[in-house]
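re: ur question from the group chat, yeah i did fold both. here u go
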Amino acid sequence: MNYLEKKIKVFGAALDPNDDPLKILAKCTYINRLAQNLIDLQIEIVDPYDGLLKHSKILHQAKFVKLGKVPIESWLTPKPKIEDFHLLDPRTFQEFTNSGAVAEYSIKIESYIKEQILPDIPLMIGVDHSLTGGALGALSEKYGPENILVIIFDAHFDGIPAHISLDLARYAKEHKEEVNVLSPQQLELHDIEAIKIEDSYTCASFLEYIIEEGIILPENLILFGVQDYPGDEMQAEKDKRVLNFVKKYLDYEKKGVSFIPAQKETAKMIMKLKETLADRQTSFVYLSLDVDVSMFEEVLAARFMNAIGIKQSILMEAVKIIKKFITETSSELIGVDIMEIETFMLNKKLKKSGEKDKTIELIDGFISELF
């Protein structure tokens, strides 16, 4: 059966356990305004799913079956309720993450897809990228990990344990002039030593977990548009904190993961994608879009904004190549997710510059090209 003949079942999953003090401050400000009746909930975008259903020019089509939202505790969502105010503290979110509870939400997504969606196509619209692991868990069980090619558009490789990432951040803060680690000047806004994140399943590390568990195979994983691939400068560093990051990253490449880093010569990115797909034999394809892959280009509504992403035109060219690959190899697209959407900036227009967030336009183009 051609995948275009299947139903596409759309659902929301707005888990947002970000412990960034600035993000938490934005949530507190929102609650204060909500308490003063300064927010009209009839027009307010509460989470990405609501925003897409309201403003998308694609998802209103009949072939997209809207299922609603997976239940999530309100204090863990982008715009909490007034009664959640006392929970909005970095330490509370860090305790949540350290407890392993993020993985529990991925298990909920896995069960949801098994019970509510399969054998149709899941289209998840959400925030925390870790939930992609849950979607892949359900699909891997049904189709077999050896048969699924996973392609992720992302500015970051989400397979790095917390202790390695934190050590690299500490190094970057000490050596801002020596190594460029995704806008290290932003590190001045955070007290890195106060961060108490332990190694656990998170949006920054979930790929390590699902690879180790055999949910996906490293040789069947492609990442397009990564900004944190360790270049020659980083690989030449002698500090152990940098070396550990480089080794962890490149070990995945040795295991078979294909990285297509973002670069100015975008034609080379497209050529590498074609070459990477040329010898693939898998029967099924899963696509994951982290909107930060185009941050500061057309996208202002990404949860992490710490580099200049790739243009929408390059992203669409890559999607066309993947669609052609699916057609020519008689493969089947079995799932899609669109993650790391920043609700506060979604569809907003900046007053001073007049620049408008085009995240929804990017997502519409992505979905339209595939379906």
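okk and heres the other one u asked abt
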Amino acid sequence: MGFTSGFLYLTAEMDWYSRYVLSWDLSNTLDSATCVSVLSRALAGACPEISNTDQGSQFTSKQYLDVLKNHEIKISMDGRGRAFDNIFIERLWRTVKYEEVYLNEYRDGHEAYDSLTKYFLFYNNERKHSSLEGKTPKEVYFNC
């Protein structure tokens, strides 16, 4: 990770049922390599039937789709005008922004990464969700 300034892109793989963030990473480029890496790490401990993403070039790349196909995972991509198809990950982005990113002034990407690491540990293990009947994502994900 060699970023010190500029835009950073956050990628995450999440279990929709429990809201558990399986894997995430930051990158200073919007390419498929980071998305493939995040997906591969998530699949090391999860076995979903379906993967849902938007239609960004990083998610429609051959490399990303090949990982899904090799694991026999059905591919679902949001269509035009289908704002609610990806509502769970969009809600995660909103939560991360309001509870972490907007509250901090990171000096560089390394500081952002370190702070987000702590945040996602909190999010998965301590942050209770009303949609999960007051349970944490970890409690729901590991008790299915």
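fwiw on the second one: DSSP finds five helices and four strands in the chain. Residues 9-141 form a domain with the Nucleotidyltransferase; domain 5 fold (CATH 3.30.420.10). idk if thats what u expected
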